[in-house]
Design a protein that fits this description.
Oligomer: single chain
Strand order of the largest sheet: 2-1-3
Largest sheet: 3 strands, antiparallel
InterPro entries: GspF/PilC, T2SS_GspF_dom, T2SS_GspF_sf
Strand content: 5-15%
Number of helices: 17
Organism: Polaromonas jejuensis
Protein name: Type II secretion system F family protein
Membrane topology: Multi-pass membrane protein
Distance between the termini: 71 Å
Subcellular location: Cell membrane
Length: about 400
Amino acid sequence: MKFQILVSSSHGAMRMLDMAATSETEARHHAQAQGFRVLSVKTTESSSAQGAMSQKRWTTGRSQFDPGLFAQELGALLEAGLSVMESLQTLGSREPAAVREQMYNPMQRTLEEGQPLSAAMTRIKDKFPHLLIASVKASEYTGDMSASLRRYALTHKRMQGLREKVVSASIYPALLTAVAIVVLIFLLGVVVPKFAGLIDSNSQQIPAASRLLMRWGTLVNQHFNAIVLVLGALAAGGIFTLSRTSVRDWIGAHATKLPLVGGYVRLYRQTQFWQTSAMLIEGGVPAPQAFGMSVNLLGADDAQRLQSTLLKINSGHELAEAFNAAGMVDSVSYRMLKVAQKTGQLGRVLGQLAGFQSDVLERGIDRLTRLLEPILMIVIGLAIGGVVVLMYMPIFDLASSIQ
């Protein structure tokens, strides 16, 4: 594998090393053995492939841009002693000219005008999340931008990991259901009509359920191509619909009302809310403002509860009491918020609360997966097995009558 390593020498000079190694750890060790301080390590393809991939990443929209990686690398450069302008120049030097012109050059021009980094990021539309911009803006007042960027990168990584666990837990049931549908269509459209051609479906010796199955099979066989086209169109339409951010937001807002999984969806969204609020508060954003900026991470019901909670907090009510009265916290979370009020470390406590809820969510997902998979297997087995049994019942009856 090829790696691109950003290093600094003992004199503080910045360099970019291209190195081949079997792993990121080995590449890091090689660079350190040469006396360099490693700031970041990035896997690369060949130079032409890297340029094409980088160009595609920036031209296909924000979905391909990793704000966590950007925050991590920018924070590492600032911590190494570079200015914001020098850090952006260093990061932009790795990108193709089109990418530099689209992003880094406008940001540098904004900085040259005397504007802060948060204003420069705001001018680059649809690239930086508003939470990252808010963290940078708060750190411009507190003076700890590198620490704020590190916190954002860590939060982004945690949320990505949590999101990947939820997605991976959903993949197997979805694939299992899709395979079962394909098998059933094949049985009804191909296998059952062949049996129907061998057996007189109007014979009174054939059970009524078998006759009904054969008629269904004949109907599916007659319209097999149309059914396949319709199912393919539905699948493509479903994939396209789910790719729309507005649709995913609508589903996420109402998924908390679903039976069995609704509680886990709400817990997942609350975990995101607490983790993001903790990051913003530790970055210097006032607590009510941090909660308001993170409201989009909650479901529709919890978002309404948060609005009433913020009204109570702004009117002088204690934070823990306001959240408890709105029904947004359980007994454990309530006690943790009470402790945060006494210690004055709200950001740290909220981070611990998010970690606690993340552990609960992971255990819940494991239990739900272990429950759903056997249920799906039983339902699919009964469906496919029922079709097979109904196909063979006429043969068994005919064999019995012959004997």
